[in-house]
Amino acid sequence: MNLHLHDPALLHADSFIDGQWRGAQQRFPVCNPASGETIAEVADLGAAATREAIAAAQRAMASWRERPATERSTLLRRWFELILAHREDLARLMTAEQGKVLAEARLEITYAASFVEWFAEEAKRIYGDLIPGPADRRAIVIKQPVGVVAAITPWNFPSAMITRKVGPALAAGCAVVLKPAAETPLSALALAELADRAGIPRGLLNVVTGTDAEAIGRELTASDTVRKLTFTGSTAVGKKLLSQSADTVKKVSMELGGNAPILVFADADLDAAVQGAIASKYRNAGQTCVCANRLLVDDSIYDSFLEKFAARVARFTVGDGMDENTTLGPLIDPRARAKVGAMVEDSVAAGARLVTGGQALDELGPSFYQPTVLADVTADMRVFREEIFGPVAPVLRFRDEAEAIAMANDTEYGLAAYLYTADIGRVWRVSEAIEYGMVGVNEVAITSELVPFGGMKASGLGREGSRYGIDDYVEVKYICMGGINPA
């Protein structure tokens, strides 16, 4: 497959361990979701290579942690600049292996770069404290790098989820062993190439590619050398990794599944709410953990909202993400499409009304599905209970504020939620009452490098991005200094 890259050297098919590209006899195909065409045959490594990567990270970290913060900052800044300079190539790689439309891929590369820039600056701001105490002693708090970091990242945001973890780890003085998703390893390898060009010392960023995620995960969780595990993915896998990390008492951060509601109250700006719901629900063909999974609409405006919303959904252009005219790309693979289709069929069989969409688009390829709107959905249907991860919008009614809050909280998840209202009192009441780590009020574009990203309940632990994002990569050490006699 010809990706038409300006810099073909960004396309790697080998793992990156201890500053060297590592091949393997066993390889696995990385395919374009839109066409099914193989882009590259990538090195399929496992537990043994993971152990080597951990050892390399431990060696590299010994000197990296001692380097002045300004030096770490400078190297991260160079990496940031190279990512932006190669934005178009990185976006094309992402669209080829992940499927999202080019416009979204370009935005993700900018988003990914922003975390590297942010944490390049935060490297110089890892402050300690001097705590007042008795006259003959001083209490000092310092922050030190936690140790070797294992990072496991998903396929839906194959660049941003890497930099959001690797940026703070390197800034704090840690080294990283990264396991990218087998569906989208090319973005990770391209970022490693640019990190190498930026002068990031060998062994600090290791990328282990492979299809045996369980074996690689076990190696990472069982290692005493790995002191921190950061994971973005499903709640089921996150729980397993948490359990496996218990024996070595690792520091962990988990960004897991979501079931985001968007609450549209009767006093909302209806056009703004429709636009927000469209932008959130159908981003990356609905394959985001923070996208609006359930649309909860006040009964008095339900029909008006549904009419406007469905009309907008019908205007999507579905196709290959490489086509600049496409506004909705494929799902990641045929299995994902089959799951989405089954959820729609189950809902319709249970009484939901299909307003638009609801069909696979076989004429485009095996992973395409129509953007879909379901009305008259109830809380016992799969599309209400489960994370859809596809271009399907279930729309439900509520009668009053209390019912809206109860419906929003009726889930094990608690990552992101959104509400549209003009009532400032309601803004405060609802924002405080709903059990979510992030709340967007009259806005769905709520993520950036400046703010903390993370959830409650089964949606995870810890926060990424912002000034809080480096906390999980440091240990807080208290030092008591005695024998200080007053003059």
TrEMBL record:
Biological process annotations from GO: gamma-aminobutyric acid catabolic process
Residue ranges of every copy of the Aldehyde dehydrogenase domain listed in the record: 23-479
PANTHER family assigned: SUCCINATE-SEMIALDEHYDE DEHYDROGENASE, MITOCHONDRIAL
Protein name: Succinate-semialdehyde dehydrogenase
GO cellular component: cytosol
Keyword Oxidoreductase: yes
GO MF entries: succinate-semialdehyde dehydrogenase (NAD+) activity
Active site positions: E255
InterPro entries linked to this entry: Ald_DH/histidinol_DH, Ald_DH_C, Ald_DH_CS_CYS, Ald_DH_CS_GLU, Ald_DH_N, Aldehyde_DH_dom, Aldehyde_DH_Superfamily, Succ_semiAld_DH
CDD domains: ALDH_F5_SSADH_GabD
Enzyme Commission code(s) on record: 1.2.1.-
Protein family (similarity comment): Belongs to the aldehyde dehydrogenase family.
Keywords assigned: Oxidoreductase
